[in-house]
Amino acid sequence: MTITVDTQRVVKKSKNFWSNIHFHPTDAIEDDWGQKILDEIAKDKVAKSVRMYAMLEDIVTEDNEGELHYDFTLTDTRLDYMLSRGFNIFLSYNFIPPCISTDTEQTSTVCKRKTRYKGKYILTAKPKSYEKWEEICRKYTEHIVERYGIDEVSKWHLQCYNEPDVGAFFMREATVSERCEEYCKLYAAFVRGALSVSDRLSVGGPALAAHYNFLAGFLDFVRKNSLRLDFICFHSYGTDPHLINNGSGRLCVENHLKKIYDVMLMAKERGFSHIPLIIDEWGATTGGFLNIEDCPALIFRETPAFAAYFVKLFIMLNSLNLPIEKLMICLSGQHEMQTDFSGFRNFFTLNFYKKPIYNAYVLAAKLFENELYFENSEECKELSIYPTASDDGRVSVILAYASENFEEGEPIEVELKFVGTGSSTATLTAIDSTHANAISAYRALGCPDSPTESEKTSIATAATLRSERVDVNNSTVKIKIEQSSVILVEL
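Above: the chain sequence. Below: its structure as tokens.
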């Protein structure tokens, strides 16, 4: 198979919308292990924007006279750190502080163990006063603008709440329509509070989890009340671990499309087709707090197949020219790990071995914004390719090879022919069975329960991306690419 890339023919400019993450738990940002992860992400330029929670429950209290008081120490620590590492902020205003909750017994954990990180719970009841919720949103916005300046905060995305359409986060015993009615009040007060500080701020919602009739009701409310909505945000997961277990669900990149098209159609029908879409959480499956104990197939999260899934996903979304501004992988379950390679949804294992999915983000960060024209000598639905160039003539091409449901298969040989460049050498970087693959090295050592320091070093080395210099003969690079793998070619 020959793929011909015209290095002088730019198809379009791309925003590289895939280089963003949702970091969870937010309160790990002030801890050493959380900063270790984020420092690595910043060093490798893996994420331009990071979604985090305001964690208003850490900030607001009420005295006996009903006056609200604020302690911004923890949120300042987190935001100071994130900005010091060069991240743009996507800030979710949640959760309902106990002092204004209608029911402090209505709690949720959304985790594998008994409580969330640091023994915390989510209060899911609605506020007892939307006026006080508005005041909290105003005071918090006022604080971040005073501390960081309107020029900085106007670059952020401010989001009202997280997954209000599901009982795990909002109004546990209510119907979806009842949640929507109350969330609309929550959003209206959030917009009034935030924009009273400055109309330069970017506000949006609803961080939808699953119920698209909720989105319809929300958009109708926004339109009817002429509220600001600068972005529509929602979550997209390919399948559910329980469906994998019962045989009715399978890993498949195309599973994301119906959800995205449903959101687009609802937005268009209600006059919001001009509003950008932000997928502020994505994953191959739901269940960030589930692992191989719950679904053995979640070992996928440890393998090169997940790297191939990510690359195939963003290439597919980019090719369809969808109005997606950001695609943010959800890194939940990070604090739940008790062993390496346990199938949680994160970038690093317990002993900080880089996972193939992390390495795929490192390679994707090397892509440029000029998408190049290419032709393929034969159709191959299993092969995804995305060729790019910088304004100064550098070329990066990423390829992912995987079957529809990521089964095992034979490798293929590809000739990459470059038109319009005189490069004599290229750099190849692969993520496959023997490259940038910690779990393969771990298995080769016999899956030790307590690896020695020497074994840890061996696994960490095997997990690291390694590049190979090859000759470009007659403007052509020959590569062999395995099933469920990724390779980056740089000229």
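Residues 316 and 384 are 8 Å apart (CA to CA).
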